[in-house]
């Protein structure tokens, strides 16, 4: 087995609804724990792909706005996010563009991009006392799983330099099939008046099986194959919240990652059918101090 003791862990976080910023949950506690651990190990920065920003045609973009605004977060009081200071990492952003171009991507900076809650909700939860230097990578709107695996693979070497790579999306995330009644009537996003439906339970389990039973290149194959799962389209009406799982598989699916399996660390169901699973791939215990 190849050594992986110089590589930072990688995370796939299901950010859920905006209420995951406004309400407490075991997932939020876990995000904070991951942030504390990252700071304790002096990460150089965060590199994150979210689920709300996709570039058109053949392009992938990197956020290069030195003073980004925040898109508002529906249903959440502005006091929970308005004063949080974003910390865009210009130097690493430009470096990511170079790395992506060297890997054959049509990569470019986007100097006008404002940050969206898919990424800064996670950053606030992980790092409530201050955002580390952060680089946001867009998706590509063709939503080709293999393209997004290749994006993660291209940026994987940054794990050897102390960068934390994160995918922010959703394990089961279909807004059309959520049960919105208790949320609209009572602002209760965690209400669970009935069990989740079978398709949601089935896909949630398939995702867990895929990432906990495969490592290295097999992880990449298993995660991309999930998009052919019979319940995939029920679990994801659109592909946007699943692309960062591909990015993660690229970032932690090299030959050198053999033996590094995903681990389900926390999970929060919302709106009856949305499963916010939080996965870690690798740990600081095996990374360089
Ligand atoms: Fe989202």
TrEMBL record:
Keywords: Metal-binding, Oxidoreductase, Zinc. GO terms for molecular function: ferrous iron binding; oxidoreductase activity, acting on single donors with incorporation of molecular oxygen, incorporation of two atoms of oxygen; zinc ion binding. Pfam families: LigB. It comes from the Eukaryota. Gene3D superfamilies: LigB-like. Coiled coil: none annotated. Its cofactor is Zn(2+). The keyword Zinc applies. Residues 10-281 form the Extradiol ring-cleavage dioxygenase class III enzyme subunit B domain. Belongs to the DODA-type extradiol aromatic ring-opening dioxygenase family. This is Extradiol ring-cleavage dioxygenase class III enzyme subunit B domain-containing protein. It comes from Exophiala xenobiotica.
């Amino acid at each position: 087995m190849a050594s992986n003791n110089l590589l930072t862990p990688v995370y796939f976080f299901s950010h859920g609804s905006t209420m995951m910023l406004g309400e407490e949950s075991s997932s939020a506690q876990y995000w904070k724990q991951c942030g504390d651990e990252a700071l304790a190990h002096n990460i150089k920065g965060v590199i994150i792909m979210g689920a709300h920003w996709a570039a058109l045609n053949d392009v992938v973009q990197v956020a290069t706005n030195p003073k980004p605004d925040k898109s508002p977060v529906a249903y959440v009081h502005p006091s929970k996010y308005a004063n949080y200071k974003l910390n865009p990492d210009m130097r690493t952003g430009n470096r990511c563009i170079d790395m992506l171009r060297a890997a054959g991507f049509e990569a470019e900076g986007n100097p006008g991009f404002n940050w969206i809650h898919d990424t800064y909700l996670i950053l606030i939860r992980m790092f409530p006392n201050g955002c580390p230097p952060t680089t946001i990578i867009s998706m590509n709107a063709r939503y080709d799983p293999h393209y997004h695996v290749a994006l993660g693979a291209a940026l994987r070497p940054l794990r050897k330099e102390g960068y934390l790579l994160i995918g922010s999306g959703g394990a089961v995330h279909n807004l059309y099939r959520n049960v919105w009644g208790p949320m609209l009537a009572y602002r209760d996003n965690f209400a669970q008046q009935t069990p989740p439906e079978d398709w949601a339970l089935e896909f949630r389990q398939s995702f867990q099986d895929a990432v906990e039973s495969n490592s290295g290149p097999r992880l990449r194959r298993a995660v991309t194959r999930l998009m052919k799962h019979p319940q995939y389209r029920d679990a994801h009406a659109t592909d946007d919240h699943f692309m960062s799982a591909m990015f993660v598989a690229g970032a932690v699916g090299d030959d050198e990652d053999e033996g590094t399996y995903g681990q389900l660390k926390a999970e929060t169901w919302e709106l009856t059918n949305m499963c916010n699973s939080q996965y870690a791939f690798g740990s600081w215990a095996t990374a360089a101090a």
